[in-house]
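SEVERITY: medium
COMPONENT: batch folding queue
REPORTER: lab tech (J.R.)

DESCRIPTION
The queue accepted two submissions in a row. Attaching both inputs and their returned structure tokens so the on-call engineer can compare them side by side.

ATTACHMENT 1
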Amino acid sequence: QEAIVYCHVRGVQVHLTLDNGQLDLIEHRFDIALRIGAQKDSSYVARRLFYGRRVLVATPEYLAHAAPLEVPADLSSHPIYLVGPLKGESVDYDFVREESQKSVSLSPHLWSNEGTLVVNRVLRGGGLAVLMRSLVEPYLQTGELVEALPGWEIEGDIEVFLMFRKHVWIDPKVRAFVDFAMSHIPARVRAAAKSG
């Protein structure tokens, strides 16, 4: 989002709309959409921006006073916050560490389609959250949040795409913006991953 806001491409004026719904590009007169997860609509062109890694995070204060958390199975003793969409009452995650893999089914105490709401909830120290690393990297850098199961990684990254209608590609401003986003956003994500 930050890279999009600071897009400096001659002749391109950015109008940024934030909405967690799958808004129709034609109905809302959008040139480009940023979408998370697999995209099946063949009427749009999809350009993969990056793969986002998910992390399990909490505040140091919460972990210091909460029930022990050493292996993925211990998660059943903790409040869990997730970002949707949620299909059913629980979500299955595979945690891997070296040659070991553990599958757990998490029933969230709070689920929301708004990522910043979940971030703010976990920052208040009430539990654990599974979030994209790029969303919580600033808080990991400052130590406000930490990875709750060090050494364990959540298997399966999330794909993030730029979506646009096929005919808008002839617009040089759209091409310029897509080129800018493709060259700047993945680099920022890679830099954040290396710093973590």
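ATTACHMENT 2
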Amino acid sequence: GMLDGVQAEAQRKSSWVKLCTCEIETLPFEVGQFDLVMANHVLYHVASLETGLRELARMLRPQGYFLATTNSENVRVTIIELHYAALRLLGVDYEPEPPSSFSMERGVQPLEAIFGEVNVFYFADESIYPHVDDFVAQYRNIGRYRNFIARTDIAQTVKDELPRVFKQLVQAKVDQEGELRVPSLMGAFVCREPRI
């Protein structure tokens, strides 16, 4: 997984890294240990955002920086829209996920409760997929797909059909538009002055 990738990259660069797996709400590091603490596209998964932010801030040195990245709610997420469209075509009941608990639009308030300085930076981008298989490969790695495949209440035949139906939907978009253009809007919060 992700930690294996970090370890492999560190070895490739002849760097030493210490990796651990833990909950953000209970990190095994001492107070004021780091100049930089990062939370990249993870805070929307934290059970208690306030507890997690306090724990991350606790580890910062007084002049340290906290960097949190996340997605914006102000862009259509093509891969998720196509996922839900494929489920509908397969006759699968689903409940769309609620809005993110930590997005670019919802992040300032909880961060300002923990940090004296919160700066916001947005990044707009677009990925272009001329080949359907590249986008389908990415789809097979998203949480919604993996969670669907792990469900025990879904027949294996339906699970097997999902990538095929998803690919057909993507191919239809490519046939219509010549390529698949996927906009993204995300950003970063750069915070200082922890109030811990």
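NOTES FROM REPORTER
The helical segments are 2-12, 49-58, 78-89, 108-112, 132-139, 143-150, 156-177.
No errors were logged for either attachment.
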